[in-house]
Q: What sequence folds into this?
């Protein structure tokens, strides 16, 4: 049972990560949520009246509860009469997320739909940073024969850097990771930390100027590349302390990376506590169990 929240356009960034630093996305089993089913049934009864507001409410509700098929269907209904860039983008978000939930052989139609929908949104609003933050990973990771293009992703990353320098640098580091150029990615993240250090250190959970995804990515980078432990730890603490359903990355992974930061900074007791918190959320968290065992075996 969850409260309604405004669905952020940043619900999904990025699509897949084929690098060694893959982190899964948060998921939700809407099928077991009776409140969602009741709300959806009630809205669908009003749908016959044809009010745009009702269709939009169904689309937003289904996105909130991660019922991606319904979200796709209703945002496409909206596009038929109101072809807004935002609606195309949200179709892309839903299709991309759905592609991760189905077997690989069934994911292709969703991947293609995601790419085409987000590209359309970008063409309508080429300077929309949120759209770029999904468009770039899609083109970077989708195979060429499904329309992907790493070269195009790099071109759009340059545009993103002009519009949002810090976000563009984080995206550039991600592109390096896609190509397994980890030394270059580390160097890029070091530059990001240098620029964002004051932004992270001087803000509380409500005042950070970085997005939620950016906080997580900086914390993860600090853990994986063993850099900027204090700033990276602060970024992950901000992510953990204000964690909610709008967040893309699972809370147990945030604790896992926080544990790595503590461990790399010779704070063993805190590292173990963070791992235990992660296991309280997901007792079958394999990476966490393996890391904890390696610590205990030392």
A:
């Amino acid at each position: 049972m969850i409260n309604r929240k405004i669905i952020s356009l940043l619900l999904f960034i990025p699509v897949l990560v084929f690098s060694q630093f893959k982190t899964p996305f948060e998921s939700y089993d809407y099928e077991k949520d009776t409140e969602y089913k009741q709300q959806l049934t009630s809205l669908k009864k009003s749908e016959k009246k044809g009010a745009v507001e009702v269709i939009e409410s169904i689309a937003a509700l289904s996105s909130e509860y991660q019922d991606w098929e319904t979200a796709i269907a209703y945002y496409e209904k909206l596009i038929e009469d109101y072809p807004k860039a935002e609606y195309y983008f949200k179709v892309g978000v839903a299709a991309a997320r759905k592609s991760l939930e189905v077997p690989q052989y069934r994911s292709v139609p969703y991947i293609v739909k995601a790419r085409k929908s987000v590209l359309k949104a970008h063409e309508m609003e080429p300077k929309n940073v949120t759209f770029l933050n999904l468009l770039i990973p899609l083109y970077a990771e989708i195979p060429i024969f499904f329309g992907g293009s790493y070269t195009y992703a790099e071109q759009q990353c340059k545009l993103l850097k002009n519009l949002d320098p810090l976000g563009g640098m984080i995206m550039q580091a991600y592109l390096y990771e896609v190509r397994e150029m980890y030394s270059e990615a580390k160097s890029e993240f070091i530059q990001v930390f240098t620029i964002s250090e004051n932004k992270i250190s001087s803000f509380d959970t409500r005042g950070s100027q970085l997005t939620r995804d950016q906080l997580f990515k900086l914390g993860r980078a600090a853990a994986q590349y063993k850099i900027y432990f204090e700033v990276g730890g602060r970024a992950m603490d901000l992510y953990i302390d204000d964690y909610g359903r709008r967040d893309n990355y699972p809370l147990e992974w945030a604790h896992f990376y926080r544990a790595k930061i503590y461990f790399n900074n010779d704070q063993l007791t805190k590292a173990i506590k963070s791992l235990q918190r992660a296991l309280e959320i997901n007792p079958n968290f394999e990476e966490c169990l393996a890391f904890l065992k390696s610590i205990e075996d030392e």
Notes: The chain has a mean pLDDT of 87. The first helix runs from residue 34 to 47.
